[in-house]
Write a structure and sequence with these properties.
The strands form two sheets. This protein has a three-stranded antiparallel beta sheet, covered by helices on one side. The protein has a two-stranded antiparallel sheet with strand order 2-3. A hairpin with a 6-residue loop joins strand 2 and strand 3. The longest helix has 15 residues. It has a domain of 60 residues. 28% of the residues lie in helices and 33% in strands. The chain is α+β, with helices and mostly antiparallel strands and 90 residues long.
Length: 90
């Protein structure tokens, strides 16, 4: 269990209501885009991957579980990790 706070990246698979899950997570502060320091280019994460600027990985999983429970969605699998550097392909 990790209670360390930082930039957390969470990826998940659900059995339905993908857009509803993503929107509920975004409503509590998770984001699907980021910009590298010094860059004007925005990057978009894969469809069921989000990040938050200041959470623990345990909190991210707990919040996703709560969202899925509230929406009556089966959370099939998920991983949350602290991330210090984001690199991506637009």
């Amino acid at each position: 269990m990790s209670m360390a706070l930082g930039k957390v990246l969470i990826s998940y698979d659900v059995d339905s209501k993908h857009v509803d899950v993503k929107n509920a997570m975004k409503a509590i502060g998770y984001m699907e885009t980021w910009k590298r320091a010094g860059s004007i280019q925005s990057y978009i994460l894969p469809n069921t991957t989000l990040w938050h600027n200041n959470k623990s990985s345990d909190t991210a999983i707990a919040e996703l579980q709560s969202v899925c429970r509230d929406l009556a969605v089966k959370l099939e699998k998920s991983v949350a990790v602290l991330a210090t550097d984001f690199v991506g392909i637009k």
